[in-house]
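Exercise 7. Given the encoded structure of a 515-residue chain, write a plausible sequence.
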């Protein structure tokens, strides 16, 4: 019997109603629920075939006996809450002595016979500032005057200023940049602290220092991009930012910050940020111009313009997020798919410390089976295309060619989370800065975030790295060569720091032995 027009309308309205209920539940959860995507292992699905209250099968007597004969696992040590202090922190030993040099009875001539440990305290010295007045001394060399028949007068070479005709020092600008891009403190809030230290200035002056110093280090920023494009594997992501005074755009319009980085397993890690006025794929072409390797990214269509020169792979974290949203809306069939994805991630965690070659072999032998089960279940699942689960399935099917490629590559990660964590550092700061006033400020943000996040990836102290980069900006030529910039690349800088520390340790040991 053919379906009447009335029945068709009713079926359509029911489908729309179900979709709206899913959307309301999703938005309510986004507003009021916790943000973590972790699953509760003790929570059972509402749509399991067997709604038994038992999570384990009932035991027989034989099973109990065999279980009692097994060796019990050792209890894990209870975690302590004791604080840890880095070994690099200088140590000062304080021995408590009588204030008057006498015993409690008032006798003098006391002698120490030993010490006993009391406690440890971690001290903090607040910031202090001082004004440095620099003069150049004039000298006269009598020998030069006699040999050259001149006055023999000379002056020593004065170190160049960070900015001509400015009170800005390397230490001050480095601290401003560190506080803004590492700690997320906006310039206007830093300004009050600087004024309390005795220096009266304006927020515009601080912004000019940040922008101008970034432009001075633009050659090193471009050198990092050149090294980035020579890598074999990259991960990419993008996020919106707001720029108030952008030519041809309203103040409330969206601009974008792009990030590209090497995978965690790769040596000499680079984290590169780039500002763009749009999210157009044309900018993706310019960002990855000359790159011929593997790029892991999400399903954004702008990456399609990269062409066949870039071998794209997908991200399972983006796929999982959509199935997680469907599972939280209690849509039948989403739990089984989500558990299969979690099984993939569990295997990946086991192989995290393995070499790329071993990880590729494990993926092909074990992970491929789970992946086939996932795609078979996808093909069998019947769901409305506009539902939350339907959208998750459509996204996974469109990304299937890119997702399957990860099986044959042991270098690339199973997800793009490393790039997203770097983007999160920017997003946390963005919540405090709110916006960039100009395009120059947005470009400076990209430059400084590149140096800071690359320093973190190479296990370098960002504050010390920023200080040395600002010092280098005063002595590098206007158009430095690659070999002149090489010493300031994060991995080369780290090696120099390690060599300097080993040298200092050897000198300290030699001094101790001599004493």
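Solution.
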């Amino acid at each position: 019997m053919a379906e009447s027009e009335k029945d068709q309308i009713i079926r359509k309205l029911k489908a729309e109603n179900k979709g709206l209920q899913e959307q309301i539940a999703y938005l309510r959860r986004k507003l009021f629920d916790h943000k973590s995507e972790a699953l509760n292992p003790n929570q059972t699905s509402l749509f399991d075939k067997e709604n038994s209250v038992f999570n384990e099968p009932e035991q027989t007597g034989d099973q109990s006996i065999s279980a009692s004969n097994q060796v019990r696992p050792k209890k894990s040590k209870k975690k302590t809450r004791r604080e840890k202090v880095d070994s690099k922190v200088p140590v000062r030993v304080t021995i408590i002595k009588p204030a008057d040099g006498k015993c409690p009875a008032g006798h003098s001539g006391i002698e120490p016979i030993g010490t006993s440990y009391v406690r440890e305290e971690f001290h903090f010295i607040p910031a202090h500032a001082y004004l440095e007045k620099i003069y150049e001394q004039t000298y006269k060399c009598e020998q030069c005057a006699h040999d050259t028949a001149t006055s023999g007068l000379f002056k020593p070479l004065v170190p160049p200023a960070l900015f001509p005709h400015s009170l800005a020092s390397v230490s001050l600008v480095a601290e401003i940049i560190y506080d803004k891009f590492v700690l997320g403190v906006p310039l206007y809030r830093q300004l009050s602290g600087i004024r309390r230290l005795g220096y009266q200035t304006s927020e515009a002056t601080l912004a000019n220092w940040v922008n101008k110093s970034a432009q001075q280090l633009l050659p090193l920023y471009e050198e990092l991009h050149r090294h980035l494009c020579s890598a074999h594997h990259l991960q990419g992501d993008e996020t919106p930012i707001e720029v108030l005074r952008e030519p041809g755009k309203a103040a409330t319009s969206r601009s974008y910050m792009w990030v590209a980085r090497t995978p965690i397993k790769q040596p000499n890690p680079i984290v590169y940020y780039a500002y763009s006025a749009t999210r157009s794929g044309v900018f993706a072409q310019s960002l990855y111009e000359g790159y011929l390797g593997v790029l892991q990214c999400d399903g954004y269509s702008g990456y399609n313009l990269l062409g066949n020169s870039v071998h794209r792979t997908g991200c399972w974290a983006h796929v999982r997020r959509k199935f997680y949203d469907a599972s939280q809306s209690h849509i039948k069939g989403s739990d089984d798919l989500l558990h299969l994805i979690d099984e993939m991630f569990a295997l990946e965690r086991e192989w995290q410390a393995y070499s790329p070659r071993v990880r590729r072999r494990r993926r092909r032998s074990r992970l491929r089976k789970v992946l086939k089960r996932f795609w078979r279940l996808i093909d069998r699942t019947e769901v409305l295309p506009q539902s939350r689960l339907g959208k998750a399935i459509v996204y996974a099917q469109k990304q299937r060619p890119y997702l399957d490629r990860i099986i044959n590559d042991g270098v690339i990660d199973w997800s793009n989370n490393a790039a997203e964590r770097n983007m999160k550092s920017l997003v946390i700061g963005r919540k405090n800065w709110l916006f960039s006033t100009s395009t120059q400020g947005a470009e400076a943000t990209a430059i400084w975030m590149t140096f800071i996040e690359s320093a973190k990836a190479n296990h370098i102290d960002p504050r010390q790295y920023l200080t040395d980069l600002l010092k280098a900006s005063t002595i590098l030529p206007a158009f430095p060569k690659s070999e002149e910039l090489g010493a300031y690349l994060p991995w080369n800088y780290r090696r120099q720091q390690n060599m300097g520390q080993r040298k200092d340790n050897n000198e300290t040991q030699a001094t101790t032995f001599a004493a």
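Remark. The CA atoms of residues 319 and 396 lie 6 Å apart. Students should compare their own answers with the one above.
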